[in-house]
Design goal:
eight-stranded mixed β-sheet, 311 residues, alpha/beta, Rossmann fold
Amino acid sequence: MTKHSSISKGSLLERATQLYDFNAALRGRAAPTVEVPADAPPPVPDYAPPAAFIPLPEATPYAPRASDWTGRMQLIDRDKLAEGGFILPDGAVTALSEEFRLIKRDLLALLAGQERGNRILLCSPHSGEGKTFCAINLALSLAAEKDREILLVDADLGKPGIPEALGLIPGPGLMDALADPAIAIEDCVLRTDIPSLSVLPAGQRSNSDTELLASSRTQALLSRLTEGRPDRIILFDSPPLLAASAAAVLAANVAIALLVVRADRTAESALRDAAGMLKGGAQVQLLLNGVTFSSSDRRFGTYYSKGDIQS
């Protein structure tokens, strides 16, 4: 007889129950005692203890930064520049280009540490004194800087002419973005084939141009253009001071007001009246245009007469 001969007959489940005493297990019979040697290592827990708390590094404060331009790119017409007597990008060094190099060096020094951002207003007492001519040449000269980005704004609302002088096709511009919050000013900026030079057209005129320029929206928009971009310089070509009120309003939002006067045309009384309208806090600098030098007095005329030096 085998050792299992005492197990009664029945189904396989019944026999297994008798053999392994499943009923005792269900009744909670204690597990047999296990003897652990005294030198045995401590038991390994079923869970990993929590890691020591390590504080996360402090987040870098968010610094707003003005957006890049999203408007279409256009080619500057070099032939038009030459016809207008402007500085030619990548052209030969001339007396004119050297004059504006000196001007921009002074302006860059004045802009350092300004609280109103890198904004320069070019204005004049009357029309025809060379304000737009100086604005375009200054923008072209500044665009040659290796670490600067120049935005030339056509703010002469009565007689806008910067896009035409550069051979660009204007579209929506400054006044459109001011009048309609749905228009993003970044979309209005015309990018050019000079990577560091862009142009913002004047846009559509209205009967409330001065009021729009004097509104808080203008201040917010200008901050949006320059915030977090110390390399970005904005040049405004404004209406004549003694012909329209917009120039004096714009002067309240810039760091430097460059007052262009023509040596053979501007009267002293007009200069005094124009300067009196620039009391909005901007540093006023005088730019004398149309000066005639003798051959012995001209600083760069003789030196660059051969035109064999490249910028």
